[in-house]
Sequence to fold (190 residues):
Amino acid sequence: MEKKIVNYETMLKVAMAISHSKDPEEVALMTVESIKTALDVKGCSLYLFNRKTNELELATSFGLSNEYINKGPVSALHSIAQSVEDGPVAIYDIMDDPRIQYPKEAQKEGISSILSVPIVVGGKLIGVVRVYTSEPWEFTLDDVNFVQALAQIAGGAINMARYVKGLKSSIDVLKTMREVQTQRSTGSTP
Fold:
């Protein structure tokens, strides 16, 4: 019973913190740190989907070595692709599953099990959250639902933060254009 309370407290804490953040990187880091801590697992990572390359690009991770996170490009078509298409995928034994793109690197990192959960916003895949354990782990429905909930909260916040950043950039461009136009009409030089 205590585990559920911890997860609800974690979701509330993350949701409140995310609602105040306008930085997508901060949202992603807060999410992976919270999932790793709440589930007491080896690590957690958040990847964003690049539609041009069909790759999952690491946004942030927590609890994993630099060597592992820099192992090579992560293909959305080959690395647990089923989670991108069908929903959450839990892999009990990474060495006995053909869906793992880098099994030797995962074993060297000390990873035994992986949970991969898609982040879908507005019906579009924007990324995945992956949870890594050092011991074989039978992910429960509560584990999956918890990670899915935080992934969706993070996805919405990342999407909103992207819009805010884009809006601020547009406003800055318009201000610059207005200043140039004002300088031309007044005849002053910068």
Notes: The chain has one domain: 2-162. The first helix runs from residue 2 to 20.
